[in-house]
From TrEMBL:
Protein name: Threonine synthase
InterPro entries reported in the protein's UniProt record: Thr_synth_N, Thr_synth_N_sf, Thr_synthase-like, Threonine_Synthase, TrpB-like_PALP, TrpB-like_PALP_sf
Cofactor section: pyridoxal 5'-phosphate
Keywords for this protein: Lyase, Pyridoxal phosphate
EC number(s) given by UniProt: 4.2.3.1
GO MF entries: threonine synthase activity
One Pfam family, short name: THR4_C
Length: 491
């Protein structure tokens, strides 16, 4: 399986292609594009039937081996077996089996239409990012050991990504994590989750400023190519291909667990921000999984909803980005969206490059086909089965309340955005699976507002705020940051 950049010129595409292990530890392609396989591996109906019996770990192996063809199968099987265990996904709630890793819960069934929740947040940090990040931790450790190499992961977080990365990389050989976060801006729970880690390879750095200050520091350090090479700096952001591919697995799992034959129709609603999660659903569909609709649910930051309604992709300025009660979806642009646009324009790298240069220079592009637009490919979106919707704070609060009343479970704010939009997109005879992207305990403030009581905390998280914390506070000073990394890597 070869990989190519979404911005590769047609003439260069074949010669510049790479293997899975080549792109595993990297981020963007050198031309600024994102990696995709040169073609999607196909899954037959017979294969799908055989996969119905598999454990999650075995299913993950079957899917990953189609993409990671340069990793020996026995090694890959060991990696997936170690990643997807009931001990790692132990935060399953009452009525869920931890051994199923992503258990389904039927919320409603009427006239052949089902509304189902797929729990993706039973891992160590109570958010779906663990599903991919835990595998990434094991893949990184494996790949680094083979090359006798080291990696220093450097990133900025406002919550979910940073904690998922730290829990995936803690204690791993050859890996250190330097994670910046805005000082005193994360919730007490999120802060405690990250800062209570005492592992010597985890460095929590609280930056005096807001998230953008932390993000700017990461960009400044990463733009210093000499420093980056010398100190072996890498990232684990949502454009990482291995993260996307690990997420493909739970779409297969959800479909197979919700059906008894491959003729049955299933749609997915996905609480979306950077388009990483739903992009994995699109890839599952391209591989032949019979997904009916993929519904992108956004919050007030409705960049994606706007595109799927109008064909106009218009990124927002920081000042136009709302801070909402589903903060992990507060995005100004959707960093994985280029992977879908590449497909939409017929895998034309020159065209994709031109469109995303327009994002830089003009703040977006328009594929509506209207006079003066940049193209008419929006008309093809329906063929890919995409739909969308948006949700506001009031919707979230009402949905959390309704779901508690009607189905007796407490959902988090991001999942509430998903349920709200899913209900607007139910179709007769089609099962709708909503991906549960976090557990309520992580976003307790809004739960308290909606229900008048605290969200239940999984075992082991009861007194997390009281644990000793390990972190340093720094000013947003790039030189000081570089000195800190240099001193702690010993390179
Ligand atoms: C990251 C995140 C999302 C958004 O996922 P994308 O892959 O960026 O679209 C949604 N919900 C939660 C809880 C998250 O942590």
């Amino acid at each position: 399986m070869q990989y190519v950049s979404t911005r590769a010129a047609a003439s260069a595409a074949a010669s510049s292609s790479q293997q899975f292990s080549d792109i595993l530890l990297g981020g963007l392609a050198t031309d600024g594009g994102l990696f995709l396989p040169t073609e999607y591996p196909q899954v037959s109906g017979a294969e799908l039937d055989a996969w119905r019996q598999l454990s999650y770990a075995d299913l993950a192996f079957e899917i990953l081996k189609k993409f990671a063809t340069d990793i020996p199968e026995a090694d890959l099987r060991a990696l997936t077996a170690k990643t997807y265990t009931k001990e790692v996904y132990k935060n399953a709630r009452q009525g869920e089996k931890a051994s199923q890793i992503t258990p389904l819960r039927v919320l409603e069934e009427e006239n052949g239409t089902k509304l189902v929740l797929q729990a993706l947040s039973n891992g160590p940090t109570l958010a779906f990012k663990d599903m991919a990040m835990q595998l990434l931790g094991n893949l990184f450790e494996y790949a680094l050991a083979k090359q006798n190499a080291e990696l220093n992961i450097f990133g900025a977080t406002s919550g979910d990504t940073g904690s998922a990365a730290e829990y995936a990389m803690r204690g791993k050989q050859g890996i250190r994590v330097f994670m910046l976060s805005p000082h005193k801006k994360m919730s007490a729970f999120q802060t405690a989750q990250m800062f209570s880690l005492q592992d010597p390879n985890i460095y929590n750095i609280a930056i005096e400023g807001v998230f953008d200050d932390a993000q700017d520091m990461v960009k400044a350090v990463s733009n210093d190519l000499e420093f980056k090479a010398k100190y072996k700096i890498g990232t684990v952001n949502s454009i990482n291909w291995a993260r996307v591919v690990a997420q493909v697995v739970y779409y297969f799992r959800g479909y197979l667990a919700a059906t008894t034959s491959n003729d049955q129709k299933v749609s997915f609603t996905v609480p979306s921000g950077n388009f990483g999660n739903i992009c994995a659903g699109h890839i599952a569909r391209m591989m032949g999984l019979p997904i009916d609709k993929l519904v992108a649910a956004t919050n007030e930051n409705d960049v994606l909803d706007e595109f799927f309604r109008t064909g106009v992709y218009r990124v927002r300025k920081s000042a136009e980005t709302y801070h909402t009660s589903s903060p992990s979806m507060d995005i100004s642009k959707a960093s994985n969206f280029e992977r879908f646009v590449y497909e939409l324009v017929g895998r034309d790298g020159d065209r994709t490059r031109a469109l995303f240069q327009k994002v830089e220079t003009r703040g977006g592009f328009d594929l509506s086909g209207k006079p003066g637009s940049d193209g008419d490919e929006f008309k093809l979106v329906a063929k890919y089965g995409f739909k969308s919707g948006k949700s506001t704070h009031d919707d979230r609060v009402n949905t959390i309340r309704d779901v508690a009343d009607d189905y007796g479970i407490v959902i988090d704010t991001h999942t509430a955005d998903g349920i709200k939009v899913a209900k607007e997109n139910l179709e007769p005879g089609v099962t709708m699976i909503v991906l549960e992207t976090a557990l309520a305990a992580k976003f307790n403030e809004t739960i308290l507002e909606a229900l008048g009581e605290d969200a239940e905390r999984p075992k082991g998280f009861e007194n997390i705020e009281d644990l000793p914390q390990k972190f340093v506070v720094m000013k947003p000073d790039v030189a000081a940051m570089k000195a800190y990394i240099a001193a702690n890597t010993g390179l």
